[in-house]
Amino acid sequence: MKRLLIAACLLAPCAAGISGQAAAAEQQFPAVLAGQALLPARTLVAPPADAGPLFQSSGKFTAANRQRVEALESLPATSFPSARDAPRVTDIRLPLPGQAVQGMSAVHPVGDGTFWLLTDNGFGGKLNSTDALLMVHRVRPVFTTGAMEVLETIFLSDPDRKVPFAISQENTQRRYLTGGDFDPESLRVIGDRLWIGEEFGPYLLEFTRDGRLVQLFETTVSGRTHRSPDHYALNQAPAVPGPAPAFDVRRSRGFEPMAATPDGRFLYVAFEGPLWDAERAAWESVGAPGAERRVVRILEFSVAERRYTGRVMRYALHAPDHVLGDIAMIDATTAVLIERDDSTEGSRAEACQGPAQPTCFNVPAAFKRVYKIDLSRVDADGLVHVAGYIDLTDIADPDRRAHLGGTTGRFTMPHLGPEGVAVVDADTIAIVNDNNLPYSMGRRIGRADDNELVLLRVPELLRAR
Question: What mean pLDDT, rounded, does the chain reach?
Fold first, then answer.
């Protein structure tokens, strides 16, 4: 992206018709690479001893027809993020001999140089992830060498039967949770509790430090419950709501971002995409006709009261196909937030020069950004104030800290899904990518993406007003 890109609209009438957040051009701030550590894509952990034989391997139900495949590493995996792409076969095949430590959709700093990372639901859906255990990991990145050590793994479970629907391991004592039950996308740690934002319901989940479910919170705000077609009470097939839907959250657009205030009093949970506006038969948006921008709701949850407060803010996306990746508080009122497109990956230096083909990136990474927002500055449309952004495809690396993806003093994060952000200190943020194992291939042609934990020095962004 060009540094002087106007992030609102290219035409003056468009900017004039949109309130608050998009009324002015947004400023790009510099980002400098402070560290990069990688966990190889093919990193596996053994399941718990009492989990049973099903979990000795994972990915057995990922064939196109969902038929069980027991032969280890017999199914090829194809990266195909966009209809404009040519399929590219990755180097990892399924099923895998163990549980994959993959798809990092959230990062939370512990404060001692280690980080909590949240594994995604498994292989992308309910039906193909029933043999994928849900996990949280504590890792230690070694930025000098680029290595990352998994120090511990917590397997999530529901032994006290807090889940109000039948889970895939219903008839077991420990009742380990799988990707067939939940799609965990965001993680914040408050005291001895793990709080996870989930996409299928969407639900907010509270766990103990050892991974035992304490409570499931429906998304009920001011008397209205928001549901996706994968909510247990619906389980409908359509991905997009109709004229009079029983759900208003698009499939795979549930809770993706979640932040916690530094004092632990509030969680700010956001949907990945807009809600369906049944009255208008359209996705929620703001702006004059012909110049609308879709908006995503950010909900306030009181940790002490264990309920949504009813306070709702909105963030305007910069294009209809964009989504939110994560949100993290800087202080009590300001935050950093990932906005990205949902169909591009790969380096522009390796872009195809002609028709789509599997030996180059047909649609290289385009819009992958981290914005600073202010939740206390909200306009008449409920839009939060935006102070500026950094571009994850335009990062300086003057000290040559990159171990992969850096050239001539520059560094990029060209992944399909940068999905986790955390504030590490007054100058630094951390970013992790969801590698959609084994499907995403944004770094190297023919190689499934690793899990990366990247530190960025962004003092100007964090202090922007």
Answer: 92
**Token pair for residue 117?**
């990372």
What φ, ψ does residue 145 adopt, rounded to 5°? -105, -20
Q: Are 87 and 78 in contact (CB under 8 A)?
A: yes
Q: Is residue 234 scored above 80 in pLDDT?
A: yes
Phi-psi region of 111 (alpha: psi -120 to 50; beta: other; left: phi over 0): left
Residue pair 440/434 in contact by the 8 Å Cβ criterion: yes
Q: What is the rounded distance in angstroms from the CA atom of residue 434 to the CA atom of residue 415?
A: 8
Residues 6 or more apart in contact with residue 439 via CB below 8 angstroms: 77, 78, 79, 80, 90, 124, 448
Q: Is the dihedral of CA 187, 341, 282, 292 positive or negative?
A: positive
Residues β-bridged to residue 371: 337, 389
Residue spans of beta strands (DSSP E) within 80-233: 88-89, 99-100, 104-109, 115-119, 135-142, 147-155, 184-190, 193-198, 203-208, 213-218, 220-221, 224-225
**Distance between CA atoms of 398 and 50, rounded to whole angstroms?**
49
> 463: part of which helix (H) or strand (E)?
helix 459-463
| pLDDT tens digit sequence for 155-207 | 999 999 999 999 999 999 999 999 999 999 999 999 999 999 999 999 999 99
pLDDT in tens, 391-418: 999 999 999 999 999 988 999 999 999 9
Q: What is the pLDDT of residue 79?
A: 82
CA distance 157 to 224: 28
Query: Rounded to a whole number, what is the distance in angstroms from the first to the last CA of the chain?
Result: 23
What is the reported pLDDT for 24? 55
Cα separations in angstroms, 45 against 73, 147, 345, 369, 417 = 16, 17, 28, 32, 23
Rounded Cα distance between 427 and 365, Å, is 26
What is the model's pTM? 0.93
Q: Is 462 helix (H, G, I), strand (E, B) or coil?
A: helix
Here the tokens at position 384 are 């939060």
Structure tokens at 77: 């995996």
Among candidate residues 445, 414, 419, 447, the one with its CA nearest the CA of residue 346: 414
- For the CA atoms of the chain, what is the radius of gyration? 21
CA separation for the pair 138, 140 (Å, rounded) = 7
Q: Is the pLDDT of residue 210 over 70?
A: yes
